[in-house]
TrEMBL record:
Keyword flag Cytoplasm: no
GO molecular function, one term: carbohydrate binding
Keywords: Lectin
SUPFAM superfamilies to which the protein is assigned, alphabetical: Mannose-binding lectins (SSF51101)
Record-annotated Jacalin-type lectin domain positions: 1-108, 119-262
Keyword 4Fe-4S: no
One Pfam family per UniProt: Jacalin
SMART domains associated with the record: Jacalin
InterPro entries: Jacalin-like_lectin_dom, Jacalin-like_lectin_dom_sf
Protein name: Jacalin-type lectin domain-containing protein
Organism: Zostera marina
Gene3D superfamilies (alphabetical): Jacalin-like lectin domain (2.100.10.30)
């Protein structure tokens, strides 16, 4: 189990800023040191029964730090956060014992670049029932999302994108067996875009999705809201969502990820991966050092 985390940040003026240790008291301490021009780009690990069981960090130089922690032979549910440059962490702890959620703040290198994030769940192809990977790539903007649900099962979705003023559909439903004749549609204004997504999943299925736009509109939730087992959740808060990728199953959506473009007014993105939507015993933490768009070094 991951008991605590403490981070030293290097600010743009060269000064070092350190955070308080969050979590509990661990018996084994591990430290990660970086060389010049090295930074983190990925975080992955596993959650099990409401706690972070292990975690691995990967840098832009392909150095792998970890895995740290144990899962006592139990796999749990994997997660994967990936972006251009990690500049901060946030999450929650269970009392002063364990880390229960972890999220990362990502910075874009420059306006015009895109970032690929996800998927949630991570690597579902290794789990039962397989699936077919799909990748819409990144586009100029999203106009319409057609979401097909059958009896609250989130089966699949098709998207109409805009590129240079031309609208075109990207279809992911060709090999889906369970289909709906009455899809639910998200239709965005020409100057509107999606900035945020919340989702719930468990093991190898995406159960529900909720989308938020820059105009304050909420779309959803789509899919199942009542659960027999406590679901895992993810939260993506980004500049501008411009594409989707993931794995499509024969009967339901197996995983989902996103292509993100920065918005000039924000220049940053944050991604949150959590084990549950809310626990009364959780205590939040955040390292609020989030710079604007940073030049590529």
């Amino acid at each position: 189990m991951i008991k605590s985390i403490m981070v030293f940040y290097c600010k743009s003026n060269g000064k070092v800023r350190y955070t308080d240790k969050v979590g509990g008291i661990g018996h084994i301490r591990k430290k990660i040191f970086f060389i010049n021009n090295e930074y983190l780009t990925e975080v992955k690990g596993n959650h099990l029964e409401g706690v972070l069981t292990n975690i691995t960090f990967i840098s832009n130089l392909n150095n792998i730090f970890g895995p740290y922690g144990k899962n006592n032979g139990l796999v749990g549910t994997p997660f994967h956060l990936k972006g251009e440059k990690i500049v901060g962490f946030y999450g929650t702890t269970i009392g002063r014992k364990y880390i229960s959620k972890i999220g990362s703040y990502f910075a874009f290198f420059q306006i015009g670049s895109t970032m690929c994030t996800g998927t949630w769940p991570f690597k579902p192809l290794e789990l039962p029932f397989g699936g077919i990977p799909f990748d819409h790539k990144h586009h100029e903007s999203i106009k319409t999302i057609s979401i097909h649900c059958v009896e609250d099962v989130l089966c699949y979705f098709d998207v109409k994108y805009r590129n240079n003023g031309v609208l075109s559909w990207v279809i992911t439903s060709e090999k889906v067996i369970l289909k709906s004749d009455n899809p639910k549609k998200i239709v965005l204004d020409d100057d509107e875009y999606l900035t945020e997504v919340e989702g719930r999943y468990y093991y190898f299925l995406v159960y529900s999705l909720t989308f938020f736009s820059d105009k304050g509109n909420t779309f959803g939730p789509y899919g199942k809201e009542g659960f027999r087992y406590p679901p895992l959740s993810f939260h993506l808060k980004a500049g501008k969502i411009v594409g989707f990728h993931g794995i499509q199953g024969s009967f339901a959506l197996r995983s989902i990820g996103f292509h993100i473009a920065p918005v000039e007014s924000s220049g940053k993105s944050s991604i949150k991966m959590s084990t549950q939507t809310k626990l009364n015993i959780e205590n939040p933490f955040a390292h609020n050092y989030i710079p604007k768009t940073i030049p590529k070094s």
